[in-house]
Amino acid sequence: MAFTKEEKAQMMNQYQDWLSKSQAVFLISYDKMSMKEINDIRARAREAGAEMHVVKNTLFGLVLDRLGIEGKQFLTQPSLVGFAFNDAPALAKVVTEAARGETFKIKGGILGKRAISPDDVKALAAMPPLPVVRAQLLGLLSTPATRLVRTIAEPARGIAAVVRAFSEKEGVAAA
C-alpha cells in the first residue's frame, strides 16, 4: 500500500513524538507472528505503561537520523517497536518473555540515544521493577537514620537502666 507524502509526514511526526516521550525503545522482528500474538504482546505492553507499534523501517530510520539516535542497524526486517514511556525494565521483561518462543526475535533497543544489543535488553529485563527499586532505595536511605536515632538514644537508655537498678537496690535494702 502506497502512502502519500502527507501520510508519511504524519507517520514520521508520530514516530518522533513517541521517541521523545519514551525512556527506551525495543525492536523485535514480527514476520513469524500472528495478529493474535501481536495483540497479546501489545496488551501486556499497555499493562507495563508502554506501547507497541508496527513501524515503516525507512521512515523510522529517517526519524532516528533526524534526532541523532543510534539504532538504524536494527531496521532490516519488519519491525514491531515497543516504546517504554514509564518503566523501561517492565517493557524489556514483556519483550524478553515473548522472545522465549520461536515466534520472534529481539533485534535490539535504544536507551536514551544509544543503541543496545539484544543481550543488553535481556539484562535490562533482569532488573527489578520500578516500585521494588524505590522500596529498596527507601530502605537504604532510612537505615542510617534509624541507626543514628538508636545511637543517640542509647546513653539515655543506659542512664535510665542504672537509675532503675539503683532504685530497686534501695527498695530491697529498705525492705
Write the layout of secondary structure elements.
Layout: H1 5-21, E1 24-29, H2 35-47, E2 50-55, H3 57-67, E3 79-84, H4 88-98, E4 106-111, E5 114-116, H5 118-125, H6 130-174
Antiparallel strand pairs: 1-3, 1-4, 2-3, 4-5
Helix pairs in contact: 1-3, 4-5
Count of β-strands: 5
First-residue to last-residue Cα separation = 104 Å
Tertiary shape: elongated
The CATH architecture of the largest domain would be: 2-Layer Sandwich
Broad structural category:
alpha+beta
Quaternary structure annotation = single chain
Given as residue ranges, the uncertain stretches (5+ residues, pLDDT < 50) are: none
Structure notes:
The protein is an alpha+beta fold. The chain has 2 domains: 123 residues, Ribosomal protein L10, N-terminal RNA-binding domain (Alpha-Beta Plaits, 2-Layer Sandwich), CATH 3.30.70.1730; 48 residues. The protein contains 6 helices and 5 strands. The chain has a 5-stranded antiparallel beta sheet, sandwiched between helices. Helix 1 crosses helix 3 and helix 4 crosses helix 5. The protein is elongated. The termini are far apart.
